[in-house]
Amino acid sequence: MSTPEYMKIYSAVKHYQDYACVEPPAMTTMCCNRRLYNWLISYMTKNIRDIKDKALVLSGPALLDFYITQWEYFQTTHMLIGRLFFSVDQQWIERQCKQDPNYTCISSTLIQLWYFYLFRRLTTHVMSNAISLVDAERSGRAIDSTLITRLYKAYVELKPEGIAKCNAEFRERLGAYICYYENPYINAAVSYIDTKTHSLRTPEHMREYIQVLSELFIQEDERSERYLRSNSLAPMRNKLNERFLRSEIGCIYQMADLMFATGNDNNGLCTIYALLSRFDNSNVLQQFLDKFVAQAKKTITQNCPEIQASTDGGKVVFAKAAVIYLSDTLNAHLDMIATLFCNNSSFTKELRHVFAAAVNTDEMHSRLGVTPARLAAEFCNIVLKNSKTRSDDLGSDLTQTAELMLHKAMDVLHASHDKGLFFKFYQLHLTRRLLDNTSMSLDLEKTAIAMIYKTVMMSVKRHGNKKGSDLEYTLECAASQNSSEAKQMITDIIVGAENSRNYTDQVSQAGFDVDFKVLHGKTWTSVNSNQDAKVVLPSQLLKVCDDYAKRYSAQHSSRQFNWLWAYSKATVQLKFPKSKGRYAQIGYTLVLNPYQVSILNLFTDPSLYDGDVVLTPLQICANIDIDANIAASELVTLTNAHILQYAPDKTGICINQTFDSKQRYIDLSRIKPAQHKKEEATLDNRDSKFRKECIMTDISGILKKKECMGHRALFNAVKKSRENFFMLTISDFKESISKLIDKGIIERDEDDHAVYKYCPV
To answer: CB-based contacts of 521: which residues, under 8 Å, 6+ apart?
Structure first.
């Protein structure tokens, strides 16, 4: 029955209303309306049955096209007749519905007729042909996919009233669509996948089963987006998961363990992640995540190269392999998350947490020999040195840029729990680089400072409008202060270089160049000027230094001016009369500290002595008024470099007239390793004291709230509160407990000495 035929019904009803029922009495109107209603129902029933009979003899695409076309015609007629019978619905049918529930409005009645006399009797035949068409597409044959799409939309539009099976309140009253289209479609998909994978569901074929199942799921998901309503995708996915994944979940986890252990099947891991991600239950994917981070922790801890610490003049040389390995391992796992696991934020967060926990364990500390914070500071120092002083610290095979190396150090710093210690060592190394002129570039130093500040601030947690715990706030302040001080230190070096140009003409006439650096005492905290000994400089150099001091004091009368001889150096051009080396004629360039200059001046200044000079250590100390310990240390340096030597009769020390070296440039001016070690030991002591103060504060605060707590529970509580800042050791915890007991802040329980109680004051 086409639209024109439906229009005949419309015209007949319209004519009946206009001419057959002109102003009839009330009873006559009621009878006419009943006759009209019954006539319409009878006529529509006959035509719908005719449509059913025609559909039963069709099959395949022809059946689907016929059903969809007739439904579209019916929709048009349903709308027009509903409008035509609007007045009848409002007057007569509304009264009839109150008396007899079997009466419904014309629009609902037509839908029920379609449902009872055509849809319910034809839907099995229609769906079997539709599923056959979809199966043909699954087999690789070309079909008209628009037929399936139009069919599911026709099922969605059918919503007969008064039928409980089709009027479920959930999912937008789509009972007819769910019962007669969605369920058969899903069952057909399950049957098809089961046929393809049944022979593979064994432990020995699990890898192939996972791969085939993933491919079939991807195909079905794409097909479902075309042939199912959007709210049918979740039931489809859940049905497939329960049928093909839930029962095999144990074997899938075992296969994941094997893939993580071998590390050579990234495609397999990606496939397993995609399958497990289909579950709405987060616990399923969480178990896979646990296996991933466990393997990552094992890789980080067991495969990290040990620091081969060696002693070279008292200085510990740190291998760069540890920092590079830790950073590369972290980034490799982050790349794996981005590539294989769709950049899952939960995976990334858990990986960083496990990486930090692994780096800060006692096992890693013993393997590295130092804390990760100090290791990062040492590595930054290696990277930021210039090529002349770096030598082979970074290795001959390293071709990456300094900024890339700094990023590797930042990965370790971000994971470190004792960032405060990093600041102290970094500033100590920065001081040496700037004062020794061994920094690769001041611009690179600024870049490093910005990277450090950004890295530390990323690790500081925020809690609402508060700035986290007291220690987090302290760490944030320390990062800001360290960044400001480091920038000021670099500024001092730049300004000092500009000021030195004012004296270029004067010192050039004296035959040497100078470079003055003015350091602000509040910024250069690692520089201790109180330990500097007196220095007797050559007369020409002493005159220039005195002149500079007077000019600076005149410009800044409110400032106190002190020379830092321990951090100064001089470049001396020296010829050795009896040398026969390759540089004998042009001389050697010696970089010396002021103490070495003072000592060497005794042997080379003709105004002091004539001819070959032989002096004992006591005579040297007396002549230049230098501390005996400093003199002994510098004499060892000069004699080891063969610039000075013991006289043949062993009565004293003299200059080596036959000095020879393959290098023209010889640097002896660096700060002595003994002083470095002393400064680093001081930093370690300060950091240890700070940690113990934090531990004592936590213990007293926790016991004040809990009143009493066992030893193990208290240790774990303090460890958890400080896990993002430093690692709590048993020795520090016990020492803090003892101090608090001695102060009377806490006490042991009389019945159980392993329980501590807070003592209110």
So the answer is: 527, 529
What are the backbone angles phi and psi of residue 212, rounded to the nearest 5°? -65, -40
Report the alpha-carbon angle 134-136-138, nearest 5.
Answer: 70
**Of the candidates 370, 486, 478, 471, which has an alpha carbon nearest to the alpha carbon of residue 420?**
478
| Number of Cβ atoms within 10 Å of the Cβ of 268 | 19
User: For residues 582 and 223, what is the distance between their CA atoms, to the nearest angstrom?
Assistant: 83
pLDDT at 317: 44
Residue pair 218/238 in contact by the 8 Å Cβ criterion: no
SS (H, E, C) 144-181: CHHHHHHHHHHHHHCCCCCCHHHCCCHHHHCHHHHHHH
**The predicted structure's pLDDT at residue 390:** 47
Which of 47-61, 365-379, 461-475 is least confident?
A: 461-475
Tokens of 351: 């990986």
Compute the average pLDDT of residues 2-30: 50
Q: How far from chain centre, in Å, is Cα 499?
A: 45
Q: What is the DSSP letter of 231?
A: G
The beta strands (E) that lie in 187-320 are given as 311-312, 315-316
Q: Which residue is listed with tokens 């309503």? A: 229
Write the DSSP symbol of residue 92: I
Termini Cα distance of the chain: 97
Higher pLDDT: 538 or 265? It is: 265
| pTM: predicted TM-score of the whole model, two decimal places | 0.67
Structure token digits, residue 508: 């050039």
State the Cα–Cα distance between residues 46 and 708, nearest whole angstrom.
87
Look up residue 103 and give its two tokens.
Answer: 């009466």
- Whether 674 has a pLDDT exceeding 90, the answer reads no
CA–CA separation, 155 vs 611, rounded Å?
A: 116
> Phi, psi at residue 467, to the nearest 5°?
-100, 40
CA-based angle 522:523:527, to the nearest 5?
A: 90
C-alpha closest to that of 659 among 609, 620, 598, 603: 603
Q: For strand 570-574 and strand 588-592, is the pairing parallel, antiparallel, or unpaired?
A: antiparallel
Dump the DSSP string for 515-581: ------TTT-TT--GGGPPP----HHHHHHHHHHHHHHHHH-TTS-----GGG--EEEEE--TT--S
171 Cβ neighbours under 8 A, 6+ residues apart: 178, 231
**Contact predicate 601/623, CB 8 Å:** no
Distance CA 407, CA 326 (A): 12
pLDDT tens for 149-198 read 999 999 988 887 766 555 555 556 688 888 899 999 999 999 999 999 99
Q: Which residues of 54-72 are buried (b: 16+ CB within 10 A; e: fewer)?
A: ebeebeeeebbbbbbebbe
Give percent of the chain with pLDDT exceeding 90.
Answer: 14
Question: Of 503, 594, 496, nearest to 544 (Cα)?
Answer: 503
Total length of the chain: 761
CB 381 within 8 A of CB 436: no
What CA–CA distance (Å, rounded) separates 72 from 54? 16
Contacts of 3 (CB under 8 A, 6+ apart): 73, 76, 77
Q: What is the pLDDT of residues 217-245, one digit of tens each?
A: 999 999 999 999 988 888 999 999 999 99
CA distance 558 to 388: 39
Residue 525's pLDDT is 65
pLDDT digits (tens, 9 = 90+) for 289-316: 888 888 888 888 777 766 544 333 333 3
Q: For residue 481, give Cα distances in angstroms to 46, 474, 725.
A: 91, 10, 17
DSSP E strand stretches across 643-718:
644-646, 653-655, 665-667, 708-710
Which of left, alpha, beta for 60 (phi over 0: left; psi -120 to 50: alpha)?
left
- What does the block give as tokens for 562? 């002190």
